[in-house]
Specification:
Blueprint (H helix, E strand, L loop, with lengths): L3 H6 L1 H10 L7 H12 L25 H16 L4 H7 L7 H10 L7 E2 H8 L8 H10 L1 E7 L5 E4 L12 E2 L2 E2 L13 E2 L11 H14 L5 H7 L9 H4 L11 E4 L1 H5 E6 L2 E6 L8 H14 L1 E3 L15 E2 L1 H17 L9 H16 L1 H23 L18 E2 L1 H5 L1 H6 L6 H9 L4 H4 L21 H10 L1 H4 L7 E2 L11 E2 L5 E2 L3 H10 L7 H4 L2 H7 L12 H14 L12 E2 H4 L11 H21 L15 H8 L3 H7 L3 E2 L22 H5 L7 E4 L4 E2 L4 E2 L18 E4 L29 H9 L2 H10 L2
Antiparallel strand pairs: 1-7, 2-3, 4-5, 6-7, 8-9, 10-11, 12-13, 14-15, 16-17, 18-21, 19-20
């Protein structure tokens, strides 16, 4: 159960509502909503023509907002728990799949399998920042940083993982308050996940003795020469055809990577307690900073040949491992599994068995495991420091990897993956592209004469040799790499059925959004967890938006604001709006609309296609094997995976889509780049601050957005993470200009400073037509 205490607490309110509800309004859309509610089905209200504030739960008029919060929460929980096959079919799930399964995979399974083995990762995460071994002390201080606000009660510590922006698992909360670390059920912060098809049974006393003996025996590391040899290279010599059956599967090790929930479950503080928001953006996570931590970890095991701060490519042949650091971690891991196994997965007999078995599996392949870890670091360095810092991020700001909680430069950075995969030893990526479509511009040339929007220098001619095609992509990176930095906010995924395009700039079709995101996040189509992505499209299509959780909704003003919305907003913010509004016309920062070039478009689409085809081949003849293949011709599939945004740039039509505003209250800060902290400031441009704080979970109920001016002086609770950073709109890609369509609704605030005169600005806005609109937006 996601929030059992919430459901129990709402029974009285729901009962009271049921006794006092009036007759159903006979307008067809509300009658249909009532029928859905009786059948236990959730859906957004279609064609809401009433002047009243209506509930999407059943179409009834909302007269008590506190009661409506409880009703919506109850309906959402019902959807997350729903395993009924009849309702699942109505939602669009394939037979055998349903919301409960999809929510479990969304929350608890990794999007890919190329992460660090769990036992190794947990060993690193648990290292003492004051460890007596200097190599392990250095490693510990990569993952833990000193905070000014101590964490925990009793023997509090200043060494925290606040800087990652990932807090405790929801299962580790009691009535909205996080348990102490010593009492938690989940071994990792929420958003880290692993998957293994094997089940682990408790060990007998004799088996425990046997495993402990094997762990102790492996403590004497005898493979130093092998380790040195294997760690000088950063790539396995995969053979695509030979190894394909093993692609897209977890193998025999639990490997830690991000789940969908890492980025797409938000949090807010309500009455001093944490409330989780399924489908909403995690406004705290530093997702790409996690990649930096992995890169720094890899560098900690290298004595020479890998400078993580350099912007020149690493030559794998020059890498010299730090054998002292490697041996120290190896010993620490084995001792932890043998002497303190309960500190890995947990204290149950099955958890302890898993810890010992998994530790031995890692020990048996430790040279390869360390090779993989260093390879992750080298590839991360290439994508971020060689490609991005030499092109889009030539200027020191914004940082290529951090200082943006709740944000990432997803597609701009992902373009570097195209270059990475041209370096496969067997050249299998380009061979795949040729098999998939020999008429791809990757072979026929990127030129206007070939139907492309622009010539790409060095890449206009046709080539037939796959190695030549790979080489020219790699050699001409400056000609096609993203030209500008474009950090953007993590998007909500609630009620995605109302979205025709995916992503801020509409650069993908709706059906491809889940797998394309998973493939980009994983970085390797051979390692994508394609299976879990299938039910995620119908899941997010029907996932309701969480209700505004504060009782401060003036329903009379909200009714007034509903009329304001119809007159000023509804023509754009409508269901399945296909229009892309040019950035130049909107006046907003255009960078996100410019990041995908033709080469990156075709290359990234090929990576997603490869992941999909691997899954299809490995599951041939099984139900759902081809779920990820968009309908239509090759060109139509390409357009679904990645729209032709480079053509928009050439034509001057590059811009952004307008979505329905379901749960807009939880999507702060606003605009695609998160440059405006509250809805009030979005409507009234003169009140927008140049600098503000991001990551705070306390809420500004007056202007509608997360608290943006007052830095927290205490944690939300003694065991909570806290990550708040300043956002500067003067930095490239972070401009807060544009979207001035609500300015006519706003009061005169001339001469008022957004921060110093905040309370006066709040008063004036709330008394204006903009204030009425804010009240209505809270109810969506």
């Amino acid at each position: 159960m996601w929030n059992r205490s919430l459901c129990c607490a709402t029974v009285a309110l729901l009962t009271a509502w049921g006794c006092n509800r009036g007759a159903t309004n006979e307008t067809p859309q509300y009658v249909e909503a009532a029928r859905r509610a009786e059948a236990g089905v959730v859906a957004p209200l279609a064609d809401d023509t009433s002047d009243d504030i209506r509930s999407w739960v059943d179409g009834q008029v909302v007269t008590d907002w506190a009661m409506e919060i409880a009703r919506r929460d109850h309906a959402i929980q019902g959807y997350l728990d729903d395993s009924d096959p009849g309702r699942a079919a109505k939602y669009g799930f394939r037979s055998g799949q349903h919301p409960q399964l999809a929510w479990s995979w969304f929350r608890d399974n990794p999007v890919g399998f190329n992460g660090v083995p769990f036992v190794l990762f947990k060993t690193i995460l648990d290292l003492d920042p004051d460890h007596q071994n200097p190599a392990l002390r250095r490693l510990a201080r990569i993952w833990k940083r000193e905070s000014a606000l101590p964490l925990g009660s009793g023997q509090a510590t200043r060494w925290t993982i606040d800087h990652i922006g990932m807090g405790p698992n929801p299962s580790d909360y009691v009535d909205g308050v996080a348990r102490p670390d010593s009492e938690r059920r989940s071994p990792l912060p929420f958003g880290f996940a692993f998957e293994n098809q094997r089940t682990f049974e408790p060990l007998s006393a004799a088996e425990t003795t046997l495993y402990d003996g094997r762990l102790l025996a492996r403590r004497v590391f005898s493979n130093t020469s092998l380790l040195l040899a294997k760690m000088r290279t950063t790539d396995h010599e995969d053979n695509w055809e030979r190894d394909r059956q093993g692609f897209g599967s977890p193998g025999n090790m639990d490997r830690v990577f991000l789940s969908c929930a890492a980025c797409h479950v938000g949090r807010v503080v309500v009455d001093g307690k944490i409330k989780f928001l399924p489908g909403m953006p995690n406004t705290e996570i530093e997702a790409q900073y996690f990649s930096k931590l992995l890169m720094l970890t890899a560098a900690a095991f290298v004595e020479s040949g890998f400078d993580p701060a350099s912007t020149t490519p690493v030559n794998p042949a020059n890498i010299r491992p730090n054998t002292g650091a490697v041996r120290a971690l190896y010993t620490e891991m084995l001792d932890k599994a043998r002497q303190r196994p309960e500190t890995l997965y947990g204290g149950s007999p099955a958890d302890i068995a898993r810890a010992k078995i998994q530790a031995l599996a890692i020990a048996d392949e430790f040279p390869s495991v360390m090779q993989d870890l260093i390879a992750i670091g080298v590839k991360t360095h290439f994508i971020y420091y060689v490609v991005a810092k030499n092109n889009a991020y030539r200027q020191p700001l914004p940082d290529v990897l951090e200082d943006r909680p709740g944000q990432m430069d997803a597609f701009g950075i992902a373009s570097g993956l195209v270059a990475i995969h041209t370096r496969r030893p067997d050249n299998s990526f380009l061979e795949f592209v040729r098999r998939d479509n020999p008429q791809s511009p990757i072979f026929t040339g990127f030129s206007k004469a070939n139907g492309l929007p622009a010539d790409v220098p060095g890449m206009t001619d046709a080539v037939t040799d796959a190695k030549a095609a790979a080489e020219r992509i790699f050699k001409n990176i400056p000609a096609w790499a993203p030209p500008v930095p474009a950090p953007i906010d993590v998007k909500s995924v609630n009620w995605a059925v109302d979205r025709y395009h995916a992503n801020w700039d509409g650069n993908q079709g709706a059906s491809s959004r889940t797998l394309a995101s998973g493939a980009s996040a994983t970085g390797d189509p051979r390692m994508v967890n394609v299976r879990i992505h299938e039910p995620l499209n119908p899941f997010i299509n029907n996932l309701p938006a969480p209700p505004y959780p504060f009782r401060s909704v003036d329903l009379a003003r909200a009714r007034e604001g509903k009329g304001v919305f119809r007159e000023n907003c509804a023509s754009c913010h409508r269901s399945r709006n296909e229009t892309i509004y040019p950035a130049a016309k909107l006046g907003v920062d255009p960078n996100r609309t410019r990041v995908n070039t033709s080469v990156s478009r075709y290359g990234l689409a090929a990576l997603v296609t490869e992941a999909c085809q691997i899954y299809g081949l490995n599951n041939k003849g099984q139900s759902g094997a081809d779920w990820c293949v968009p309908p239509g011709s090759w060109q139509e599939r390409l357009d679904e995976y990645f729209r032709d945004t480079p053509r928009r740039v050439v034509e001057g039509t590059n811009g952004y889509k307008a979505d329905m505003l379901h749960g807009i209250w939880a999507q702060a800060p606003y605009l695609h780049n998160g440059s405006v902290p509250t809805l009030g400031q979005l409507l009234c441009p003169a009140t927008r601050p140049q600098r503000f704080l991001r990551g705070n979970l306390r809420y500004d109920e007056a202007l509608v957005g997360f608290e943006w001016a007052d830095r927290p002086t205490a944690r939300y609770g003694p065991n909570e993470i806290l990550l708040v950073k300043e956002f500067d709109t003067a930095v490239a890609g972070k401009a807060n200009s544009g979207h001035t369509f609500g300015s006519a609704l706003c009061p005169d605030t001339s001469g008022l400073d957004p921060v110093r005169d905040r309370r006066e600005i709040e008063t004036r806005i709330r008394q204006s037509s903009a204030g009425a609109l804010l009240e209505y937006l809270k109810t969506l």
